[in-house]
Amino acid sequence: MLASYAAHPEQSKGRKFAEPASPLINGLPIRNVFQRDRDRIIHSTAFRRLEYKTQVFVNHEGDLFRTRLTHSLEVAQLARGIARTLNLHEDLTEGIALAHDLGHTPFGHAGQDALNACMRNYGGFEHNLQSLRVVDKLENRYAEFDGLNLTFELREGILKHCSIKNARELGDVGERFLRKQSPSLEAQVTNFADEIAYNNHDVDDGLRSQLITIEQLKDIELFAENMAIVKAKYQDIEQKRLIPETIRRMINQMVMDLCETSLLNIAELNPSTIEDIRQAPYLIGFSQAVSKKNHELKQFLRKNLYHHYKVNRMSAKAERIITELFNAFMSNVELMPEEHQFAAKENQPRAVADYIAGMTDRFAIREHRRLFAVEEYF
Ligand code: MG
């Protein structure tokens, strides 16, 4: 069923360090290379830390909000479903989805912005680039190499965007940014699955937190039209069921539109190999109508949820914690655990950024307390 222009594991551009093929059973490999990539990601420490990293709400704010981990699982679920419909490689798509946020700092975007500001004279900090750094360098689980030694296709999928300057330094996965080429359809699908996931789950979490209301969302087309469908079908539905019934229809509408529009784009180009995909502009996308509605929803969330004053307060605290940790480790490298001091011999700012970026929310809060509260020991 795999389309000729999908990513085929046996045609992978391979891993940086050659490895023996998966053992065969009845003449077939137990796992294809993309399955092995996906499995390596699940076994990484960076993946486990996603459980305690902020998506929008800091972990201790409530048990029902999305974390980076549950967000990544939702992205994987959506991406895999879309990949199956489009006859793309599901394992690769799932792997990219599970890895796409590995480089996120504690405290979500507030954390990343603060770390980027700290790093402005040292090459900056960008979570997308950091996700690649985690799988290429920072995970230390294998005897023969640093990182997870993932396939080119998985690494290409992680690197969603990249400056020309960084692209020059990144070698193989940077090249497409210099040549203005596209990534595989599996990577493109994951980008959109990410967007569908967070726009919808942020509506859900926003309503749960009561920072946004159904009343406000009545002006947002995507929400309003789907809520009207639910209400017409179930007149007396209670709010607790109304919200998920509406959101599942929103997700469905976006996924359907994405699949239909993308299939039309693919049919029009009529590609035969993954190289045709790389030469073409993005083929995965929404129709103009849904793209507009999606944009309206994003704008709404940015204004009313991500910049709600209560979220701003948490962001300000996050910024303070990250900045103070960074300054403390920069002024005295010996405050860091030994393995990070060792890494700092090569490049202190980058080692400090790696240490901080790897922290979970609660670890960062504790580490800050250990450094700044006199009543705390070690
Ligand atoms: Mg994401």
Write up what this structure looks like.
The protein is mostly helical and 378 residues long. It has a single domain, classed as Hypothetical protein af1432. The protein contains 19 helices and two strands. It has helices at 33-42, 45-49, 68-85, 90-99, 108-118, 127-138, 152-158, 164-170, 175-179, 185-209, 214-217, 221-233, 239-269, 274-279, 288-306, 309-331, 338-344, 348-357, 361-372, and strands at 24-25, 28-29. Strands 1-2 form a two-stranded antiparallel ribbon. Helix 3 (68-85) crosses helix 10 (185-209), helix 4 (90-99) packs across helix 7 and helix 10 packs across helix 15. The longest helix has 31 residues, at 239-269. It is globular and about 60 Å long. The protein starts with 23 loop residues before the first strand and ends in a 6-residue tail after the last helix. The model has no long low-confidence stretch (mean pLDDT 95). Magnesium ion is lined by residues 71, 75, 100-101, 194. Magnesium ion (MG) binds at residues 71, 75, 100-101, 194.
